[in-house]
Write a structure and sequence with these properties.
With 246 residues, the chain is mainly α. The protein has one domain (2-245). The chain is built from eleven helices and no strands.
Length: 246
């Protein structure tokens, strides 16, 4: 169990500072876009969120995080492969722990965006002129702003389920893509497909429950194809045996 915990900690340490840097940049850019919007104190909250274009910052942050989570455990000086080899843990478990690390990182970015949205909402409630705020401003913004509602769907369970499945599947794709890269192959197609679906998911206007169902199916299908490609395309490698052979 200690070996597995060590693998998880290695995976987390290889990407945590990069993810924190993305989160810091994400907050700085979104605050800048909000505060320097023309007349932000005379905007309704949902107009402020939409006109500031902070949704594009979120898309960029998720996209950058996906490629960071793939590369930090597959290429570069932070690649923990050689340390993992000494721990004698099978590559199958390496993929599982990388999957968990990537999914947690993506969930952290999601929650961070929710915090930023509520921070912007709090600032607006304190700074906006009296005619542009009310006790229901946040709920109205959640209803009127497609981006706000996509990030925090409240009672829209299909949208909430879509977000959860999306990040779980994206974490698995990050792990399978990194596995392929460590073997000298390229497997970026699934990751790119996820980014395309992510963009379509949050950039579109209003979605119906049936469309959310389609996206859930699409994420799951891409994830399954990605994992099946790992299982079929290569035999499992045990790091202990690989180390002994070398």
């Amino acid at each position: 169990m200690k070996k597995h915990l060590s693998v998880f900690m290695l995976m987390a340490r290889s990407c945590i500072y990069k993810i924190m840097l993305i989160m810091a940049a994400m907050a700085a850019v979104e605050i800048f876009l909000t505060l320097f919007l023309p007349n932000p104190r005379t905007q309704l909250l949902y107009d402020l969120i939409d006109l500031s274009r902070i949704r594009f910052v979120y898309y960029a942050a998720i996209s950058l995080a996906v490629f960071t989570l793939i590369s930090c455990c597959s290429v570069g000086s932070s690649n923990p492969r050689h340390t993992i080899e000494r721990l004698s843990v099978s590559e199958r478990w390496v993929i599982v722990w990388h999957w968990l690390t990537a999914a947690l990182a993506l969930f952290a970015l999601w929650f961070w965006q929710i915090i930023l949205l509520y921070g912007i909402s709090l600032w607006h409630s304190l700074a906006a002129e009296s005619g542009y705020i009310s006790q229901q401003s946040i709920f109205l913004a959640n209803f009127r702003s497609d981006f706000f509602h996509s990030v925090l769907p409240l009672e829209d369970m299909s949208r909430l389920l879509r977000n959860i499945i999306m990040f779980i599947c994206m974490g698995g794709v990050c792990a399978s893509s990194a596995h392929k890269i460590r073997r000298g192959k390229k497997m970026m197609f699934a990751a790119l497909m996820h980014l395309i679906f992510l963009w379509a998911c949050f950039a579109a206007e209003a979605f119906e429950a049936s469309y959310d169902g389609f996206l859930i199916f699409a994420y799951a299908l891409i994830f399954v194809l990605s994992i099946v490609g790992v299982c079929i395309g290569s035999e499992e490698v045990d790091y202990e045996e690989a180390t002994l052979e070398n």
